[in-house]
Amino acid sequence: KSGGDADCPVFRYTGNDWTKIAGIDGAWVLGDPLDASVFYAYKASAGDVYRSTDKGLTFAKVSAPGSSWFKKMRATPGAKGDLWIPVAKDGTDGKLLRSKDGGETWNAVAGVGRCEAVGFGKAAPGASFPAIYVYATIGAVTGIFQSVDEGATWVRVNDDAHEYGGLANGEFVMGDMNTFGVVYQSTAGNGIAARLA
Fold this sequence. Notes:
By secondary structure, this protein is an all-beta fold. It has no helices and 17 strands. It has strands at residues 11-13, 18-20, 28-31, 39-43, 48-52, 60-63, 74-75, 83-88, 94-99, 107-108, 112-121, 131-138, 141-147, 155-156, 173-175, 182-186, 192-196.
């Protein structure tokens, strides 16, 4: 849960020393895949997204898409400003959010309910957009799902016999960027599991 990280400071290394970044304690930080000057931060406990355009020196709040127990916002490989946030709280409450403008505006991905993690893998044959993987509830079923069409449709790639206790505090489900259909997940005490979708 993000609550345990809420007060963890964020530091920036400049080659000589570490400097604390003000205002984003407890945030998950990631760089833009195409613009080395741009970084994003999601503060899950507060539900706020911040952006830096000076290589992480300063951050400014750009939106408030909502809080989540899960903090790992992801950026689409090979795309500028294309961000995804998994949202999950008590019970079945949740969604998957996407921003195409660097975190300024967000839209829920249709059909995806409670979502604990989102990640990317190598695109399907003939597709240009990376495969998307989520640990989420879709159609009243909770599991790992794959989309090869930017989230328009989803196919479950695990089964009830291979849940591994869920994602636990690793909070990740990621596709292999070299081999389409291979997906990795964190587990509850069993290391990292991989399977062919």
